[in-house]
Amino acid sequence: MVNGEMTLSAPVLEPIRDQDIAEVCAFIREHHATTMGLLPCQRAFCHDWDPDKPNNGYLLRDGERLVGVLGAIYSRRLIRGREERLLNLTSWVVLEPYRAHSLKLMQALLKQPGFHVTSLSPSAHVVRLYERLKFQFLDNASVGIPHLFLPRLKGGGLCTEEVDLLKEGLPAEVVRILHDHDNMPSMVGTRRLIVGTPQRSALVFFRIAPHFLQPLLAATLLYVSDAEILLANLDLVKRHLLWRYRALHTRVALRHLGGRRPWLAWDFLDVNRQQYLSQTLHAADFDNLYSEWVA
Q1: Which of 25, 112, 213, 243 is 20 to 30 A removed from 80 (C-alpha atoms)?
Q2: How many CB atoms lie within 10 A of CB 155?
């Protein structure tokens, strides 16, 4: 006690072990993501995307009490012909009396050698902190595509969430992505569809969320394996999202479309400022896969 006020002891820094995951997810839901399901959260940290992962992030304890966490989702990715190890930061939550110790969590993760680091859903104040740590930004310039003026469909294309119907048309590396993300819907409600033909198809991950004109809904495309196939079958995707989910429009980053702007698309403000830290990889090498968006 100092000047009549109770002082807190410094919390202890520990790695998040597999046996800690249930407790960590309960902490995240109680203090941060109150609508998040516990089982999807636990599942997000249990993927075998990097069999040699060192931990699941770091936590802070004051005695037996959990007072802070910073989660990590690890993966091994084939990028430009090389296997790379990625560390995706997620769910940085520290109780107010212990905020002075928050950076211990980040420092413990960043000092691990051999990882490229991503932050794909940071809050505004975390973005500013990562900027000071030399994180760079992904290009998330986005457009909105209305689900209106849908023409009569022609040809033999198909858009379906029954992914086995068209997966023969996917390249081998995309089939691996499909199998690695077989737990849809994800922690944040992400789903997947395949569009195209049995001979040539594209995998798409998407999320449905409230439209700004609630209770209407809108879609966001989080990953597109082949922009050319998606654009050739865009009306199929728009029709599927409109009829099945009552989504009025789709938001998508232009980088997922190869920089091409669909008809009637409008610009979206970049509200999700995703960041990365790497000495050898570039912004175009990163996407939303193997992260909390699809875990």
Answers
A1: 112
A2: 9
